[in-house]
Design a protein that fits this description.
The complex is a heterodimer of chains A (323) and B (375). Chain A has 323 residues and is α/β, with parallel strands linked by helices. Chain A is built from eleven helices and 14 strands. Chain A has two domains: 219 residues, Rossmann fold, CATH 3.40.50.300; 66 residues, Alpha-Beta Plaits. In chain A, the strands form three sheets. A six-stranded mixed beta sheet of chain A has the order 6-7-8-3-9-10, sandwiched between helices. In chain A, strands 2-1-4-5 form a four-stranded antiparallel beta sheet, covered by helices on one side. Chain B folds into two domains: 237 residues, no CATH class; 104 residues, abc type-2 transporter like domain (abc type-2 transporter like fold, 3-Layer(aba) Sandwich). The longest helix of chain B is centred in the middle third of the chain and has 32 residues. The two termini of chain B are 30 Å apart. Classes of the chains: A alpha/beta (323), B mainly alpha (375).
Chain lengths: 323, 375
C-alpha cells in the first residue's frame, strides 16, 4: 500500500458491491487509479457511478468488496479517508445565503483549517478559480458556472492529493464546462489525482482513462483511444446528401458493418479499416445512391458507449436504464 | 477538547449564526413569537372573575335579598346584567350564550331569615362552560358562606362553637392568573421555538444535500450537533430574558428567587428541547414533516401535560406517566419555585437533575441516530 506520492495505485478497488435491498447498484466493480491520472467514470443516470464514488469517499458503506483510497480501507476507516480527499457532490452543496468567502471559511473549518493558514488557502483557491473579485458576493447571486468553480475551490481548500468529482458539470453551460475542465487539468498537472463521473461523452475525452458503467457493472475501462480501437473497429464515415438512402438499404451494402442515423444523414462504419471514402462512394454509386456526400469521421466515445450498451445483456435487476 | 474539535464546532456555529442573521424570518420568529404568545396568554388565559354578568331573579324584593345581591356584586366579581321575574326566563340566556350565571331568590327569603329559618337562594349555572361555571361557583359559594357567618354572628349563635377556617394564599395572595401562567409560558415558548428552529435547520441540510458535503469532511456527528445547537442556545436565553422582563413589567410577575438559578434551569431545559429538535430532523430528514412533528411534540405536551394550565395530579395514570418524563413539567416547577416562592437549590435540585438527564439523553440519542453515512 503506498500513499498518494508513491509509485503504486492511489485507488485500488476489488469486487466493490453495493446493494440497496434487492437492488444491486454497484456489482463487483474493480479498478485501479494511478497518481496524477484523471479517471472518468461514464454511464447513464442510475448506472451506479455516484454510488461508487460515495463508497470511495467513505459516505456509503460497501456491501462487499474492498476499496483502498490512498492506502486506507474505506470500510474500516471512513473518517480517515475524509481527511485525505476532496469531494464535490452531485448537487453543489454550497450555502447560497453565504458569500463565496464565507462558504470557503466554513468548509475550511470543517476540514480543520483555521487562522492564518485558512486565510492564505482561501485567498489562494479564490485566485485559482478566478473568483477573487467576487469573494464577498452572495453565492446565490453567482451564475451556475461560477458556483461550480466555487464548489471546486471548497473541495481543494485543504490541498487533497485525491479529488472526487461527482457530475461536476451537470446543468452548466458549455463555456463554463470547458473552463472548469481547464481548472481540473491544472490541478492534475500539479500532482492531484482525479476521479470524475459524467454523462457528457465529450468530457470523457479530457480523461486519461475512461470507465464505462452499465447497470452497476464496469463494462469497459481503458484510454479513450484504446476503447475506440477495440469497440469501434474499422472506419467511420459520415454519409449525407440528396441520395443518402435508408438505413436498411445502406446496411445491406457489402462491407458496411453498422449504420446509425445522424442528423439528416448516417454514420456508416466499414469493417475493413483500409477502405477509404472513395471506395465507399463507389459502393454507394453501385447500390443506386449516386451523389452522396461522404466525410471521414473520427469515432467519438458516444459510439463506444452505444456499442457497449447495445452489446449488453438485458438488465436483470435494474428497473430501467434511461439512454 | 482538541483543537480540531473547537475549529470544526466553531466553523459550524459561525455558519449557523450567518444563516440566522441573513434570514429575517428567524429573528422575527425568535423575538416576535414570545411577545405575541405572552400577551395572548397573559391576557386571554385568566382564571380571575372580573364583573361576570349574571341574570337576577329577585322574587323576594326585601332588604335581605338586596343585601345578598350586594354581597355578590360588591367584590366586582359579578355584575347584574338583567333583572327577570321568572326563573324560567334565565334558560334562553344560557342557550344563546349571552349569560352563564343566574341567581334566583325565591319569595319568602327575607321572611325566613328573619324567623331564623334556613333560607334558600338558587344559583343557576351553564354547565356547558365548565371553566367559567366552576370559578363562578367557587366565588358564589364563598360569598354565601361569608353571608351566613355574618348573619349567624349577628344572632350571636356563632360563638366558639364552629370551625373558623382561615385561608391564606401563599406566594400568590391576589390569586392573579398571570403569576401562575407566565412561568408556564416561558416553558411553552422555549419548547416550541427550540424544537421548531433546530428541526428546521438540520432537516434543511438534508433536503438541500449539504449534509452529504458535510459528511465528506472529517466533521464528527457530535460536532454537527453541538455546532448547530450553540447559536440557538444563545437565542433561547435571549427569549428567557425577554419573557421574564415582560412578565415582570407588564404582568407584575416577580422573580423572588435567584435569577442565576432561573437561567441555569432554562439552559438545561433548552438543551433538552434543542436535542429533541435535532432528533426529529435526523429521523425525518424533511423540513415539512420536521415542522409538524416538532410542533406537535413540543406544543401539545407542554400546554396540556406539564401542569401549565391543568394540574398533573388529576390526570389518569397513563398521562401522568407521560408527564413524568416531560422536561417542561420539571422546568415549570423550577420556574414557579424560583419566581414565586423564592426557592433555591435545596428545594429544586431534583427538578434540575431531571432536566439535566433529559438534556443528556436527547443529545446522546440524536447523536446516535445521526448517521454519518447516507444509506
Amino acid at each position: 500500500m503506498s500513499g498518494p506520492t508513491g509509485a503504486g495505485p492511489v485507488i485500488e478497488v476489488r469486487d466493490l458491491t453495493k446493494r440497496f435491498g434487492a437492488f444491486t447498484a454497484v456489482d463487483r466493480v474493480g479498478f485501479e487509479v494511478h497518481a496524477g491520472e484523471i479517471l472518468g467514470y461514464l454511464g447513464a443516470n442510475g448506472a451506479g457511478k455516484s454510488t461508487t464514488i460515495r463508497m470511495l469517499c467513505g459516505l456509503l458503506a460497501p456491501t462487499a468488496g474492498t476499496a483502498l483510497v490512498a492506502g486506507v480501507d474505506v470500510s474500516r476507516h471512513p473518517q480517515k479517508v475524509k481527511r485525505l480527499i476532496g469531494y464535490m457532490s452531485q448537487r453543489f452543496s454550497l450555502y447560497l445565503d453565504l458569500s463565496a468567502a464565507e462558504n470557503l471559511d466554513f468548509f475550511g473549518g470543517a476540514q480543520g483549517l483555521a487562522g492564518r493558514r485558512l486565510r492564505a488557502r482561501s485567498q489562494a483557491v479564490l485566485e485559482q478559480v478566478g473568483l477573487l473579485a467576487h469573494r464577498d458576493t452572495r453565492t446565490g447571486d453567482l451564475p451556475g458556472g461560477w458556483r461550480q468553480r466555487l464548489a471546486l475551490a471548497c473541495a481543494i481548500l485543504h490541498e487533497p492529493h485525491l479529488l472526487f468529482l461527482d457530475e461536476p458539470t451537470a446543468g452548466v453551460d458549455p463555456v463554463s464546462r470547458r473552463s472548469f475542465w481547464q481548472l481540473v487539468r491544472g490541478l492534475v498537472r500539479a500532482g492531484t489525482t482525479v476521479l470524475v463521473t459524467t454523462h457528457y461523452m465529450d468530457e470523457a475525452e479530457y480523461c486519461d482513462r475512461v470507465g464505462l458503467m452499465v447497470d452497476g457493472r464496469l463494462a469497459a475501462l481503458d484510454t479513450p483511444a484504446a476503447l475506440k480501437a477495440r469497440l469501434v473497429p474499422g472506419r467511420l464515415f459520415d454519409v449525407h446528401g440528396p441520395a443518402a438512402g435508408s438505413r436498411g438499404r445502406l446496411a445491406a451494402i457489402a462491407g458496411i458493418q453498422h449504420v446509425e442515423p445522424f442528423g439528416a444523414g448516417f454514420h456508416v462504419r466499414m469493417a475493413d479499416p483500409s477502405v477509404g471514402a472513395g471506395d465507399l462512394a463507389g459502393r454507394l454509386d453501385a447500390a443506386g445512391f449516386p451523389g452522396a456526400v461522404i466525410d471521414d469521421l473520427e469515432p467519438s466515445l458516444e459510439e463506444v458507449f452505444l456499442e457497449v450498451v447495445e452489446g449488453w445483456p438485458a438488465p436483470a435487476n435494474a428497473p430501467e436504464v434511461p439512454a | 477538547m482538541s483543537r480540531g474539535f473547537l475549529i470544526r464546532v466553531g466553523a459550524l456555529a459561525r455558519k449557523e449564526i450567518i444563516h440566522i442573521i441573513r434570514d429575517v424570518r428567524v429573528i422575527y420568529m425568535a423575538l416576535g413569537l414570545p411577545v405575541v404568545m405572552l400577551i395572548l396568554f397573559g391576557y386571554a388565559v385568566s382564571f380571575d372573575l372580573d364583573r361576570l354578568p349574571f341574570a337576577l331573579v329577585d322574587q323576594d324584593r326585601t332588604p335581605a335579598s338586596r343585601r345578598l345581591v350586594e354581597a355578590l356584586t360588591g367584590s366586582d366579581s359579578f355584575t347584574v346584567a338583567v333583572r327577570l321575574d321568572d326563573p324560567r326566563a334565565v334558560e334562553p340566556y344560557f342557550r344563546s350564550n349571552r349569560l352563564k350565571v343566574g341567581l334566583v331568590i325565591p319569595p319568602g327569603f327575607g321572611r325566613r331569615l328573619q324567623r331564623g329559618e334556613v333560607a334558600e337562594a338558587q344559583l343557576l349555572l351553564d354547565g356547558a362552560d365548565g371553566t367559567t361555571t366552576s370559578i363562578a361557583l367557587g366565588y358564589a359559594a364563598g360569598v354565601g358562606q361569608a353571608e351566613t357567618r355574618r348573619l349567624l354572628a349577628k344572632t350571636g349563635l356563632l360563638g366558639d362553637l364552629g370551625l373558623r377556617d382561615r385561608v391564606r394564599l401563599r406566594f400568590n395572595p391576589g390569586m392573579k392568573s398571570a403569576r401562575f401562567i407566565v412561568p408556564g409560558l416561558i416553558a411553552a415558548i422555549l419548547a416550541i421555538m427550540a424544537v421548531l428552529l433546530t428541526a428546521l435547520t438540520v432537516a434543511r441540510e438534508w433536503e438541500r444535500g449539504s449534509m452529504e458535503q458535510l459528511f465528506a469532511t472529517p466533521v464528527r456527528r457530535v460536532e454537527v450537533v453541538v455546532g448547530k445547537l450553540l447559536p440557538y442556545v444563545a437565542i433561547g436565553m435571549v427569549q428567557v430574558l425577554l419573557v421574564v422582563a415582560m412578565g415582570s413589567l407588564v404582568f407584575a410577575v416577580p422573580v423572588t428567587g435567584s435569577l442565576g438559578l432561573l437561567f441555569g434551569a432554562a439552559l438545561l431545559f433548552l438543551l433538552g428541547m434543542l436535542g429533541q429538535g435535532v432528533f426529529i430532523s435526523v429521523v425525518t430528514r424533511n423540513q415539512q414533516v420536521a415542522t409538524q412533528v416538532g410542533l406537535l411534540s413540543s406544543m401539545l405536551p407542554t400546554l396540556l401535560l406539564s401542569g401549565f394550565l391543568t394540574p398533573v395530579e388529576n390526570m389518569p395514570l397513563l398521562l401522568r406517566a407521560i408527564a413524568a418524563i416531560l422536561p417542561a413539567r420539571y422546568f415549570i416547577q423550577v420556574l414557579r419555585g424560583v419566581m414565586l416562592k423564592g426557592n433555591g437549590l435545596r428545594e429544586l435540585w431534583p427538578d434540575l437533575l431531571a432536566l439535566l438527564a433529559f438534556a443528556l439523553a436527547m443529545v446522546a440519542i440524536s447523536t446516535a441516530r445521526f448517521k454519518r453515512r447516507l444509506d
